Amino acid sequence: MINQEKLSIVGAGLMGHTIAFTAAWAGMNVKVWGMNEEDITRAKEGMNQKLKALLDYEVLNQTDKERILRSITFSVSLEDVVSEATFVIEAIPEDLQLKQHYFKKLEDLVSEQTILSSNTSGLSATEIANQTEKPERCVVTHFWLPAHLMPLVEVVRGKHTSDKTIERAFSLLKAMNKKPILVKKDVLGQVGNRLQYAIFREAQYLLEEGIASMEDIDAAIRYSLGRRFGVTGPFMTMDMGGLNTNASITSYLFKDLSDRKEIFPRMKELVENGHFGPKTGKGFYDWTPEFVEQMEQEREKELIRWLKQDLEELKVNR
Hints:
By secondary structure, the chain is α/β, with parallel strands linked by helices. It is 51% helix and 11% strand.
C-alpha cells in the first residue's frame, strides 16, 4: 500500500528505532531524532542486531538490509528531523509532562496539517494533547514491543481527535503492514494492556493462593490460551465453545475471580528489593545471562514464525 506521509520519529530508544525499522522495511523514508550521539549509536546497534536476526531466519536478504538502512536518517536536531514531516510519532519515556512538553514544542516546529502521534502504552491521548493549540490532529498509535515483529497497533481517539486524523493514522499503519485497531474511547491501558493485566492479576492470585506454581501457571497460558488466541480472540473463542456453555461457566466463575485493586504482596516485595526481572538478574524468575539469552531467542524465533505467516498472507492478498 502506497502512503504519501513524510514520517518522523521522535525518540531513538527501543520503540523508536523499531518503529522506524518497520516503516523503512515497508518502503518508507523515515527520520529519527535521538537525544545525543550515544542515543543514536545504541539505536543503530540495536537495528543491526535485529537485521542480523531477520537475515539469519531468511526473512530479509542483504539487498533488503541495505535498502532499509539507506531509508533511515538519524539526527540530534529535532528541527531537522521534523521540519518536513507530515506525520510525527513520539516515542519518548512514559512521562505525561515530558510528552506534553514535546507535543507543544513539536506544534511550533511542524505545519498545521502535520499529525502528532504518541506511542504511549497507557497514558491518556486527551491529556497528552491538552496543551496543544490543535488537539484535533493529535492521536495515540501504540505499537507493541518489539515493534518490528508485533503487528498490532492501537489507534486511540482522544476527546478532540478528528476523523481525518484517525483516517490518516490507519492509512499510514496499513502501509507499514501493521494491524491497526480503533480504541474509540480514551481509556487507561487501551485494549491490549487491559486484557493483559486482567490475566496478570488472576495469575498472581493463583500463585498467592498456592493454587499452582509460577511455572505451571505460565505453562497453562503457553500451551492453551497462548496457542488458541493466535487464531481466535476471546469473543470468537466463546462463540466456538458455545455461548450456552460459556454463559453457564460465567454465572459461577466470575464471582470467584480476583478483583484485587492493589499490587499483590509478592510482586511488591520483589520491586521493593530491587528485583525487576532480566535487567537486575531476578524477578519472579532467576535471570542468569544464559537464561536471558535463551528466552529472548525463543521469543524472537516464535514471533518471526508468525511474521513469516503474516508476510505470506500479504503476498496472497496483493
